[in-house]
Amino acid sequence: MSDNSIGKHIEFAARALKMPTIRRCWAELAERARTENWTHEQYLSAILDRQVSEREANGTALRISGARFPAIKTLEDFTFDHVPGLRRDVIAHLATSTWIAKSDNVILLGPPGVGKTHLAIALGIKAAHNAYPVLFDTATGWATRLTEAHATGRLAHELKRLRRYRLLIIDEIGYLPFDSDTANLFFQLIASRYEQGSVLITSNMPFGRWGEVFADDVVAAALIDRLVHHAEVITIDGDSYRTKTRRQLVNTDQ
């Protein structure tokens, strides 16, 4: 078989096997293999590694896009010096996403502006890199989603559909109160995730005030009970990063 025929056969096989990376790079790697005197096994390993790496990168990009993050935030960009009380070793452990494999939860509590949303997004992106499907929304966004599903008789179907996401991120609980009907919908969401899938929540309210958010102390207590049973609860103290930055700018201008 001629070199030309072999090349066409490789490209046909790569297309049939849905391996576009191999189709693109086999010739380049073959030339390198000849130049560097690779064994057949080394060439095969290199070409398969290239295919796997690109497929994983594409999968990560799709998971990040599908998560609907409002922005891309990373742990590398987080200003830990602004919140010195935040334990970096705990965040580093959460970045491994091993808690998601166990269907555990993470709750970030603290005043506005201390980086809760940044951390939530960054941990969500780490989860996507670790091959876990993620879905992000604000608490009001989740309330709208659940209310619409309930109104159209699709709540059970929606809760079942959401189980395909190994991590749900609920941002900004506490900024707006919910009525009792919405509170019950939130309870059903959390109950459906209990020991089945992970939830990451950020809130500016301590647990003692969640009754104000969910219109009912009993519902709030039941919701918290399921959330914290298998959870890392992190309280972040400090001044608002945004307020501090504005203050510094004003002082600089003066």
UniProtKB/TrEMBL annotation:
Keyword Lipid metabolism listed: no
CDD domains the UniProt entry points to: AAA
Span of domain AAA+ ATPase: 102-235
GO biological process: DNA replication
Claim: ATP-binding is one of the keywords in the record: yes
Domain of life, source organism: Bacteria
GO molecular function: ATP binding
Designated name of the protein: IS21-like element helper ATPase IstB
Organism this protein belongs to: Gordonia amicalis
